[in-house]
Amino acid sequence: MSLPAFLAALDELAQAAAAAFAAADDAASLEAARVEFLGAKSGRLKSVQQGLGSVDGADRPAAGKRFNEVKQQIQAAFQEAQERAGAGRAGVVRDRDFDPTVPGRPFRLGRLHPITQTIEELKDIMGRLGFTVALGPEIEDEWHNFEALNIPADHPARDPLENFYLASAQAALGAPVALGAPAGGGAPAAVGGAPLLLRSQTSTVQVRVMESREPPVRIISLGRVYRPDTADATHYPMFHQMEGLLVDRRVTMADLKSVLRLFAASYLGADVHIRFRPSFFPFTEPSVEVDMSWKDRWIEFGGAGMVDPNVLRAVGYDPEVYTGFAFGLGVERLCMRRHSITDIRELYKNDVRFLGQF
Ligand code: PHE
């Protein structure tokens, strides 16, 4: 091959390679161009190099020099194209309408309602004390809300004005309520005209759990309860309770006090004090009101006591063998005390300026 022919082949190669690498705008076309021009076995640079051997001996140094220049040019073009592609991957946007200096749209993250947060924490604390969670329906029959809890038909707590009785069983069954499966696995009960009501206390779940299994029982139940109270700073017609129930052999009032004391210390802090005041509930004997003092203020958080033998009998337990304690605490009160919320209605207005603080 003559020197001019070799040099012309090199020039043509240099031009073609420059155009190919300049046009390569993604990883695939860049790789194709690399193989075409720089491929070790059958790349075009390689095949031009093979022509070098046939150049006349005297012309060979000049041909070799030019060959090396073109080789370096092509390699540089490849490197540059590679850097361009890398920069594209790192986020250089080629769309001319995209303005990276425009501030992004702020997005608001949702969060759990303070009552939900409180419930999760209560489950956690009681879980560490060995209590598992039991659920019950919010529509109840009179057996679970009253009868089995030793509340007779003429008891003032059963006054229709003190409860949300449902107009008819049929209406109740049509209603999309029944949150959570009944602990006993049955339906929300009392078809055929028997009165139904929105449960007024979570003690209903005690009955359902004991009906469905043998002692030992160690459960908490957290959920909504309903009472026709006028809403004010401390009352709301719907609120939440945490019910606790422990039934076993030789359970005493001292166990009740220890559990509540451990609970209070976990929830409010080691500097909390608790006290029991004598009280009355039809389903516990003896019964107490539970107060907790935190930061120098006593607040009543709920009721408690030793499960009444009549209740144990109603669910088929032998009160000569088993004893137990039960307590019911107001979840809103616990939440409000912790966060210094002074009006329960704030919890149910759903004002995000309020809810966003927790
Ligand atoms: N059920 C009672 C109430 O709603 C609280 C309570 C629960 C009392 C368990 C004693 C034992 O007021």
Descriptors for this entry?
single chain; 358 residues; alpha+beta; BirA Bifunctional Protein, domain 2; seven-stranded mixed beta sheet; 12 helices; 19% strand; binds phenylalanine
Please indicate the percent range of residues in DSSP E strands (runs of 2 or more). Answer: 15-25%
**How many individual domains?**
2
Classify the helix fraction into a percent range.
25-40%
Content-based structural category: alpha+beta
Order of strands in the sheet with most strands? 1-4-5-9-8-7-6
The CATH superfamily label of the largest domain reads Bira Bifunctional Protein, Domain 2
Shape: rod-shaped
- The overall strand count is 9
- Tally of separate helices: 12
Instruction: Give the CA-CA distance, first to last residue.
Output: 85 Å
Specify the CATH architecture of the largest domain.
2-Layer Sandwich
The CATH topology of the largest domain comes to BirA Bifunctional Protein, domain 2
